[in-house]
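Hello support,

Our group uses your service weekly, and this is the first time we've seen a run hang past the timeout. The protein is DUF2207 domain-containing protein. I'm not sure whether the cause is the sequence or the server load. Input pasted verbatim:
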Amino acid sequence: MPEVRGWFRGLVVTAGMLLATVLALPAHAEPPGAESIPTYDVVLTIRSDGLLHVRETITYDFDRGGEHGIVRRISYRKNNRLFDIRDVRTSSSTGAPARAETAKLLHDVRIDVGDDRRRVHGRQAYVIEYDVAWAFTPYEDHDELQWDALGSDWDVPIGEAAVRVEGPVPLRRVKCQAGTAGSSTRCLRDRDGPFAVDFTQSGLRPRETMTIRVSLPKGAIQVSPPHYARPHWQGTWAGTAALALALAAVVLLARRPAPPYAGETLTAVGTMLIVADLADDILVRGFWAFSLGDGCLAGLALVITGAAAARTRRSRTTEHAAVTGLGD
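Update from on-call engineer: The timeout came from a worker crash unrelated to the input. Re-ran successfully.
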């Protein structure tokens, strides 16, 4: 039995060594080469003409494979409230490619910073600057700014974030909340001055941000009236009823074909109604400002009915030709 005891003693020693190694590992070790944002510094400058100037300095750690750059998404539409993101400028203090390409999406302005033909590795620093119009909300006794300073679309952690708010008048009512949307966690208030307030926050997880709220005395700056977009959906019961009738017409057309060219006519008229309903918003504010109203729904109903009529007539024509051919 000495061999058995020796084998068992060796097994116990090996298991103990493995357990000690596992316990010595960090509890939340990050995978090697994981991307992150070590520092994120933002300066919000409130101008007397009502514009908000934003300067973001982002230090980004790329993984070993590298990337072509970073992507910043800035909301220009929250519900039906619109903000005007303009004069976007980008640069890099570490020599990384910093050419900016902007695209207006459904609710965000997407800013691609980098070069599709070149990958960057390691730690790089980027500066993004832009102006925001229509950012303030006027009230009877004060004007208010609420701004997402970092954006909640980053899918990497942020080590240290700092937001500085500067104004043309003393800033007495400034708040900052950190975390996901609706979070009540207060940021650390770092330094105060008569015309500037600093906030910091450590250890932000992916999609967490810092939201700034500033209240200024009435008349401290020029505030433009807020701009609003039409809702994406403006249909009423009338438009819904038109769609229901179109579906009923499809069933009827399966039994009783429509007159010649009725399908093409209905489709053409419906298409013109859709274009007329959408064009008003799209031509003025861009493709993503579309709004579906009763005119668009009525046009869609006519297109559905016309397509069903044309399909039924083609099927009947094909069947008739087949029967005629057999008779011959």
